[in-house]
Design goal:
With 281 residues, this protein is an alpha/beta fold. The protein has ten helices and nine strands. The protein is elongated. It starts with a helix and ends with a helix.
Length: 281
Amino acid sequence: MRWKTLAAALITTTLLFPAAVANASDAETMEAAKKEGRVVIYGSWPSAPMNALATSFTENTGIAVEFSNMASSQVIQRFLTELEANQPQVDIVQISDLAPYIDFSRRDLLMPYASPEYSAYPESFRDADGRWVVLALNAEILLYNKERISEANAPKGWEDILQPEHQGAISVPDISGGGTGYLFYFAMRETYGREFHEELGALRPQLHVATAAQGQAVMSGEASIAVGLLHYTGTNALQSDPTAPIAVVWAEPIPLAVRAAVISRAARHPNAAKVFMDYFA
């Protein structure tokens, strides 16, 4: 199976097909959740599908969802700052990096919750005690502006971007934003060695914290190429406007970013959080 075929299969997730009903939660938990009335979520996941999921969840349960979208690094900082100040607000944290969750588990910052829905996921996708679960995988792609680069000269692979004509015109994910930036750096280093990043750095690339900002830079022509951005930035744009001046390249190997979620041990709405995780999974 080719890498892009595998990636396409893996990224067909609950974000695209939210559950119709929240039927995994037991009656006692559901009743307590409805009394709590809402669930607060901080996440780096795309706003549009998350808002659609939140609307569906509220319609089916009567429980309100407050979703704040921000970069993974901002999610982590806000989560830890609230805990350190003993003023927790968030119930569920969603980011595109598994390493912080493993650290949070060791520090006992996460609530164990073995949702019955988790059993449908591979064991490698979930913590044995239910502290975290990987709900989706998103591919990192290469995107280019067709008005600035002809199809004949379009990059086919990651190393193709390392050309002098792309000086100052390549958008890369800023690792200060968190997971996707780390993933791109690691994947390229492991595949091509440190020389890849040295050559890329010599081209003075543009740094963007958010995947959406990378996509906008290419759409506007500010950048001719974006690398390491999440696939839906390009595919959703083309679905909305097939005439958009961009093209998606599934360069191999395809880095896959995890989309994981956890419940805070200090959650103010723990039952509502459990019901949402049942619904989401």
